[in-house]
Amino acid sequence: MNYTKVAIGILLKKNKVYITKGKYKKNIWEFPGGKVKKHENIVHALKRELLEEVGILILKFRFFKYVKYISLKKKLKLYFFLINKWKGEPYSKEGHVYIWIFLYNLKFFNFPLANDSVIHLLKKDIHFLK
Ligand SMILES: Nc1nc2c([nH]c(=O)n2[C@H]2C[C@H](O)[C@@H](COP(=O)(O)OP(=O)(O)OP(=O)(O)O)O2)c(=O)[nH]1
Ligand SMILES: [Mg+2]
Question: What is the pTM of this model?
Fold first, then answer.
């Protein structure tokens, strides 16, 4: 089984972060993003997925963390980006539940296991997220 590359955008606004309900498991939250297609690079996929899923054009972003995740069902290479500036009003174009929550409340939400290290970093120190 080959690795699937995934580009994920962590939208930050003041001390809040945009999270959305995963498509398949209703009690799992996720950051917007998706699979990198064959012909595209990670940043191209990030921009495409955020436009498709959240309706925004990302303007200011930076690479945050790479996570390699292996389970019985899937092998993922996840590339997480912090997004601080965008054009448009974020909302779920796919009609999924989405909310802005304070970073320190991330502990109350279930995320995929692969996100653990990223969630830990986001809760730790808000200031370096600029
Ligand atoms: N979007 C997103 N996917 C995540 C996160 N953490 C995590 O392990 N994943 C996994 C779930 C999926 O197995 C994989 C790809 O995510 P996805 O289902 O959003 O991919 P996609 O948007 O291209 O999917 P699709 O709707 O086009 O079928 O990454 C996360 O925070 N956000
Ligand atoms: Mg997606």
Answer: 0.94
